[in-house]
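Supplementary Methods. Inverse-folding protocol.

Structures were first reduced to a discrete structure-token string of length 457. This string, shown here, constituted the complete conditioning input.
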């Protein structure tokens, strides 16, 4: 809702001083920013006291819900005991030791070591550096190319952002960097040919991947990066047999597999990790977001022995592994992450994600025949409602993304915060949501679909 801005209001001060992420800066100067003031459970409240269901768990991240006392207390305890500590030059502290051990213990495949970073982008950049370092250590200095997919999101830093597929992450930033190759996404609904089965589409994607590898020279390819379910790309759920076929190609040419579990990790797909849901056997797993429910920034890479051992040898030859961040393995963030995982386990939030997720997705399926909807898709407690303007001649002039933005604005009026991947409404609430919350979400989405439809008719 557009309001008249009061001079020196908090909204005006935001525009005066705050340079926003992922925002059209000029448009922001003429808008009324939404100030989120406090939050509890699955709900956030704006500065006027209006309540919203946080249907995206912030940025796909607040797994245990907002204001969880156990995390608040863990942070306070750790801040009093050891407010900062690092892991350079063999220095360590208990939260880093305990969290590293816990992550290796719950990893779905045998992992050797955990390296801590602060964000998903940093973790993916670190993965790239480790992969290149390893190739050099093995005397394979030509093995440097990285394969990422259309619709991928792996972050925004120079290297991770180069893996990300979106043009607005590259344009005017002089990106992507060299050595990044692109292959097709597993978006069955959008990219399948008429009459093609899910299995045939998966085979086509695997064949395309193999052709790319052969054209480039298998000895030049170091790694393939993939989210088990593409998140920011529009909650793209892989078609049947996709991961099995992709992994067979990677194994054939001895190419490392990095599972970017930044969105899928910690219960989102109905199992602790997306790699379990799709029987993925990664060499590196990248974790962030729900690792600490984003109460504090922390991310982690789990690496197997195939990755770790050559890197360890190379660091010994050079005299150090010359990489690390001041805040990596921050003791307060690590303590919060440990408590967060304990909450997920104690309350069976993975089971809740699976049960309430099924209920929510069943409820959303009723919109699959709606004239404004192309596809409803999802797994566990993550879903998308893909809006489709083709049935409406009046919508022909809308640019891609305008329909999604309009629906989201109306949903906010109704007290629901979602995001849009172009015109796909993405849904990724806290793992704690109830059947009642799911009903509220379904009702409001239905109401907004009808409102937008009435406008376009
Ligand atoms: N990887 C995936 C799958 C993500 O969804 C994101 C963020 O949305 C990132 C990496 C980047 O994480 P960050 O924003 O913490 O750098």
């Amino acid at each position: 809702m557009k309001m008249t801005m009061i001079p020196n209001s908090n909204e005006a001060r935001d525009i005066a001083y705050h340079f926003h992420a992922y925002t059209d800066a000029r448009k922001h100067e003429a808008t009324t920013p939404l100030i989120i003031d406090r939050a509890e459970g699955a709900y956030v409240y704006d500065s006027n006291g209006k309540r919203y269901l946080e249907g995206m768990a912030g940025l796909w991240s607040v797994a245990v819900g907002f204001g969880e006392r156990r995390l608040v207390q863990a942070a306070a305890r750790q801040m009093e005991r050891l407010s900062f500590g690092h892991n350079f030059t063999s220095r360590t502290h208990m939260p880093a030791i305990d969290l590293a051990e816990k992550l290796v213990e719950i990893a779905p495949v045998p992992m050797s070591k955990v390296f801590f970073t602060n964000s998903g982008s940093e973790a993916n950049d670190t993965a790239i550096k480790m992969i290149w370092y390893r190739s050099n250590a093995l005397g394979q200095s030509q093995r440097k190319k990285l394969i990422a997919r259309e619709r991928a999101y792996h972050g925004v830093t120079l290297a991770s952002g180069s893996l990300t597929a979106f043009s607005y992450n590259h344009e005017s930033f002089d990106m992507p960097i060299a050595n990044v190759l692109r292959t097709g996404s597993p978006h069955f609904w959008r990219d399948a040919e008429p009459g093609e089965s899910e299995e045939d589409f998966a085979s086509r994607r695997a064949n395309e991947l193999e052709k790319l590898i052969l054209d480039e020279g298998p000895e030049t390819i170091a790694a393939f990066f993939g989210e088990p379910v593409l998140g920011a790309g529009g909650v793209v759920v892989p078609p049947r047999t996709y991961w099995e076929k992709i992994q067979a190609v990677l194994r054939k040419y001895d190419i490392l597999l990095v599972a970017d579990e930044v969105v899928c990790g910690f219960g989102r797909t109905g199992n602790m990790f997306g790699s379990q849901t799709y029987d993925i056997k990664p060499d590196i797993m990248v974790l962030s977001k729900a690792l600490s429910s984003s109460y504090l920034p922390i991310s982690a890479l789990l690496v197997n022995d195939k990755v770790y051992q050559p890197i360890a040898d190379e660091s010994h030859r050079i005299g150090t592994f010359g990489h690390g961040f001041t805040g990596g393995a921050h003791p307060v963030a690590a303590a919060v992450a440990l408590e967060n995982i304990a909450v997920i386990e104690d309350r069976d939030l993975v089971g809740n994600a699976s049960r309430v997720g099924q209920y929510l997705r069943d409820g959303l399926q009723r919109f699959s025949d709606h004239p404004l909807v192309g596809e409803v898709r999802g797994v566990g407690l993550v879903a998308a409602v893909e809006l489709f303007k083709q049935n409406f001649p009046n919508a022909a002039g809308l640019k891609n993304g305008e329909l999604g933005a309009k629906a989201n604005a109306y949903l906010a009026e109704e007290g629901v915060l979602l995001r849009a991947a172009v015109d796909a409404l993405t849904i990724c609430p806290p793992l704690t949501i109830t059947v009642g919350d799911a009903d509220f979400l379904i009702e409001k989405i239905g109401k907004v679909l009808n409102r937008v439809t009435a406008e376009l008719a």
